[in-house]
């Protein structure tokens, strides 16, 4: 659960200019995470998030390079231990996972921000990855297969 929450925090701070712990808590709660201020404070410390100055004079949370590297390692671990099969269907990649693992694997996949991926959708044991075209779906399938090796 902590790894998934950490990945979500990294995703949120990349998506929104989050300036306070309270804003981060609000975003996490809107995503379905029941967190407290002390949990978020520990997460920020563990992820080694820093605050950087914006043009408007406010500060926002930003991930350090080591946090991004940790997220990539977490992705590989979550993905490789969850995925059963990967198959391409035109511009869509269908990823089958062990029951109950699709959400975590999809969250890890989303955190990686693969360029050809337009969007993802996860169920109980299946992830649908929509790519821009057939060639990019083939490239994604090949890349995802490498994580299983």
CATH fold node name of the largest domain? Gyrase A, domain 2
- Strand element count: 6
The largest sheet, given as strand count, sense and whether it forms a barrel, is: 4 strands, antiparallel
Order of helices and strands: HHHEEHEEHEEH
What is the architecture of the largest domain at the second tier of CATH?
2-Layer Sandwich
Task: Characterise this structure.
The model has no long low-confidence stretch (mean pLDDT 87). The chain folds into two domains: 2-63, Arc Repressor Mutant, subunit A (Orthogonal Bundle); 76-148, Gyrase A, domain 2 (2-Layer Sandwich), CATH 3.30.1360. The chain has 149 residues and is of the alpha+beta class. The longest helix is centred in the middle third of the chain and has 18 residues, at 65-82. The protein is globular. Helix 1 packs across helix 4 (65-82) and helix 4 (65-82) runs antiparallel to helix 5. A four-stranded antiparallel beta sheet has the order 3-4-6-5. Strands 1-2 form a two-stranded antiparallel ribbon. The protein has six helices and six strands.
Write the layout of secondary structure elements.
Layout: H1 2-15, H2 21-30, H3 37-47, E1 50-53, E2 59-62, H4 65-82, E3 83-89, E4 92-97, H5 102-112, E5 117-122, E6 126-131, H6 134-148
Helix pairs in contact: 1-4, 1-5, 4-5
Short structural description:
The chain has 149 residues and is an alpha+beta fold. It has helices at residues 2-15, 21-30, 37-47, 65-82, 102-112, 134-148, and strands at residues 50-53, 59-62, 83-89, 92-97, 117-122, 126-131.
